Amino acid sequence: MAATQFLTGNALTVKAWAKKLYVQAIYDSYASRFMGSSASSLIQVRDEVRKGPGDKVTVGLRMQLSGTGIAGDDTLEGNEEALITYSDAVLVDQLRHAVRSKGKMSEQRVAFDVMAEHQSALSDWFADRIDSAFKLN
Fold first, then answer.
1. Is position 7 within any domain?
2. What pTM was estimated for this model as a whole?
3. Which end of the chain, N or C, is less packed with Cβ atoms under 10 Å?
4. Hey, how many other C-beta atoms are within 10 angstroms of the C-beta on 66?
5. Residue 93 forms part of a structural domain
């Protein structure tokens, strides 16, 4: 009888683990304090390329209004202010790093979980890269 088996080296397993690491690295970074999905977030998290293919996200930017406004009952019509808008494009790419264990026997010689330490070290490394990209540390 045939049985479906997913081993440690299976590409699907690696993707699930990598996604978990990325999320943890984001939360561990100092930059995460400024991240959010709203327009008022200092660092705006965009998800356009998660929903479909693409390698560039173009974002519209609106400047703050600078007019002084109209006081009292003075005429508002004819004193309106035009919006000033710009755009910026962000190219999507990947940054990867890895650690490797020599093998099961090497892992058995120490009193800690080597794979857990690998994951923690990669999470620390990635959180530091995120903070360095934002020049926050």
1. no
2. 0.55
3. N
4. 7
5. yes
